Amino acid sequence: MVLIPALLSDGAMYREVIEQLGGMVEAQVMVLSEPTIQDNVAAVLAVKASKERLRRPGWRVSTF
Q1: CB atoms within 10 A of CB 60
Q2: In sequence order, what are the beta bridge partners of 29?
Q3: Of 64, 61, 62, nearest in space to 48 by CA
Q4: pTM here?
Q5: 33 domain residue, yes or no
Q6: 36 lies in some domain
């Protein structure tokens, strides 16, 4: 699971969520520098797709 904090936020935003999930998922917080959330998500997906042609478990993007 990749968590992308809202602009101007950091990984502390998801600390409690990750703790509550425990070992159910492998969580990674990525703080990126693109100008919009959409651009940050696109950057993460592009890197992931280039590293491995995804296992295709189904991506879900949520914004708050």
Answers
A1: 6
A2: 3
A3: 61
A4: 0.57
A5: yes
A6: yes
> Is the residue at 57 inside a domain?
no
Give me the mean pLDDT over the 36-53 stretch. 78
Q: Average pLDDT of 2-24?
A: 84
* Structural domain span for residue 39: 2-51
pLDDT of residue 51: 64
Dihedral angle sign, alpha carbons of residues 49, 56, 40, 3: negative
Residue 34 lies in a domain: yes
Q: How far is CA 52 from CA 34, 59, 64, in A?
A: 22, 14, 29
Q: What is the rounded average pLDDT for all residues in the chain?
A: 77
Per-residue model confidence (pLDDT) at position 58: 55
Q: 3-state class of 3 per DSSP?
A: strand
Residue 3 tokens read as 């968590």
